[in-house]
Design goal:
The protein is α+β, with helices and mostly antiparallel strands. The chain folds into two domains: about 375 residues, Outer membrane efflux proteins (OEP), CATH 1.20.1600; about 90 residues, Outer membrane efflux proteins (OEP) (Single Sheet), CATH 2.20.200.10. About 60% of the residues lie in helices and about 10% in strands. The protein has eleven helices and four strands, in the order H-H-H-H-E-H-E-H-H-H-H-E-E-H-H. It has a four-stranded antiparallel beta sheet, with no helix packed on it. The longest helix has about 70 residues. It is elongated, with a radius of gyration of 40 Å. It starts with a helix and ends in a 6-residue tail after the last helix. About 30% of the residues are buried.
Length: about 475
């Protein structure tokens, strides 16, 4: 026992590894987004409470059932679950059942053959020639988890499994935001197309007026051609918007896992939509609400356990093996007890002594991955805060911009009527009419785009806060 203890101490000494320095992550975040300490957070709202458009709800519901990428992620969760089962099985005893049979014929002029012949063994007690050997029984092996290497590996697998669940949650948030963003884009394109068609009708009426003015010799052919060119330009522009509508519809169709088809929507009240009020809460809530932050935190915890697993490889490992069964050279004696009963029990203590480069490399890599995970965690927190701060400012600025653009559209709409009257009374040039109509169309387009950006900002801040997955 004394020598065994000395051997264990020696193996433990040669197995020790000098620990590398791990990195402690920085979890500090600013105290507020806009000097507000209100903890009410829109991220806690379910997506069906946040998005109330019935057509949009149907699209999101369908996507959460049929989206291929989402279903791929669900399979990754199952893979992670199986990894836990595998890791758990490693620190439990391995038990197996087996049976074996064989025959052995030795030569007379060999050591075994000569010994039996020279001992003059009686015929009734001689070994059969040839000698058969039959056995059946159970065997077991167990690596005693002295340094918690196997248990830490299992805990690491559990953390990575939980990380895949958070990854699934983050994907849910992104799918919802992508569909909502594309849906509002689709509504905006519908409104731009309607504006363009109304403007084409106005320009065609203006073209007819210019033609009559030419007949009355008040304008030249140049004015007719310029108005005609403007009508053709806007008619051509329709097809560009129609193509954008097709592509946006198909983007939505792809997200919900179906082949191209029209997307149902009601775009008539788009410009009267009021973005939902978003309450940001305090930045520290991001650590709980954002699935990508939670995933990064779990991956960091798993990386720390991986270091412990790698470090344990330097220490001696203890393996116990055992077996029990029946063994005989004749089938009729095979189950005779206790004569044919056999058993084994052995213990093995081993530590790496020479050429430990592979173990060192694994340990150094595990430490480097932990440092990577710590930086990734900090980067994820920083990115989340920046996303929220940007969208909060964006919502405020877009609101001011939309109000001013509304006034611009009103002024230019009135200018069209004024310029048309002045042109009829020969008090304005035809170019003034053309430029006024062109400016009015562009202003209306920009107003629709600003409304679309407002809705995008609303969706983006909801996603940035971590909403949608609960």
């Amino acid at each position: 026992m004394k020598y065994v203890l000395i051997s264990c101490g020696f193996l433990l000494f040669v197995g020790c590894a000098s620990p590398l320095k791990e990195r402690k992550e920085n979890k500090t975040v600013p105290t507020s987004f806009n000097n507000s300490q209100d903890t009410v957070n829109t991220a806690k709202m379910k997506w069906k409470e946040f998005f109330t458009d019935p057509y949009l709800e149907v699209l999101i519901d369908t996507a959460l059932k049929n989206n291929q990428e989402y279903n791929i992620t669900l399979q990754e969760i199952i893979i992670a679950q199986n990894e836990i089962r595998a890791r758990k099985g490693e620190y439990l005893p391995f038990v197996g059942l087996g049976a074996a049979g064989g025959v052995d014929k030795v030569g007379e002029y060999t050591r075994n053959g000569a010994v039996e012949k020279n001992l003059n063994i009686k015929d009734g007690t001689k070994f059969p020639d040839p000698l058969t050997d039959m056995m059946f029984g159970a065997n077991a092996s167990w690596e005693v988890d002295i340094w918690k290497k196997l248990r830490n590996a299992k805990k690491s697998a559990v953390l990575r499994y939980l990380g895949t669940v958070e990854g699934r949650n983050f994907m849910v948030t992104n799918i919802i935001s992508e569909i909502a963003t594309s849906y509002y884009e689709l509504m905006a394109f519908d409104n731009q197309l309607e504006i363009l068609r109304q403007n084409i009708e106005i320009q065609q009426n203006a073209l007819e007026i210019v033609k009559m003015e030419k007949q009355a010799a008040k304008v030249t052919e140049l004015a007719v051609r310029r108005f005609e060119a403007e009508v053709l330009k806007n008619q051509s522009r329709q097809y560009h918007i129609l193509q954008q509508i097709v592509e946006t519809e198909n983007r939505i169709n792809f997200l919900i896992g179906r082949y191209p088809q029209p997307v149902q929507r009601n775009s008539q009240g788009f410009q009267s939509l009021v973005p939902a009020k978003v309450q940001t809460g305090v930045p520290s809530q991001l650590l709980q609400n954002r699935p990508d932050i939670r995933q990064a935190e779990l991956q960091l915890a798993a990386a720390r356990l991986d270091i412990k697993v790698a470090r344990a490889n330097f220490y001696p490992s203890l393996r116990i093996t055992a077996g029990v069964g029946y063994n005989a050279f004749n089938a009729k004696y095979l189950v005779t007890s206790p004569q044919s009963l056999m058993y084994t029990l052995a213990g093995e203590l081993v530590a790496p002594l020479v050429n430990r480069n592979a173990i060192k490399a694994y340990y150094y890599s595990a430490t480097a991955k932990q440092i990577q995970a710590a930086y990734n965690y900090e980067r994820t927190i920083l990115n989340a805060y920046v996303e929220v701060a940007n969208q909060v400012a964006n919502i405020s600025n877009l609101e001011q911009s939309y109000n001013l653009r509304t006034q611009q559209v009103q002024a230019l709409t009135q200018s069209i009527e004024i310029s048309t009257r002045l042109f009829r009374s020969a008090r304005a040039d035809y170019m003034e009419v053309l430029l006024t109509q062109r400016d009015a169309v562009e202003a209306k387009f920009e107003l629709v785009e600003t409304k679309m950006e407002q809705m995008h900002a609303m969706v983006s801040v909801y996603r940035a806060l971590g909403g949608g997955w609960k």
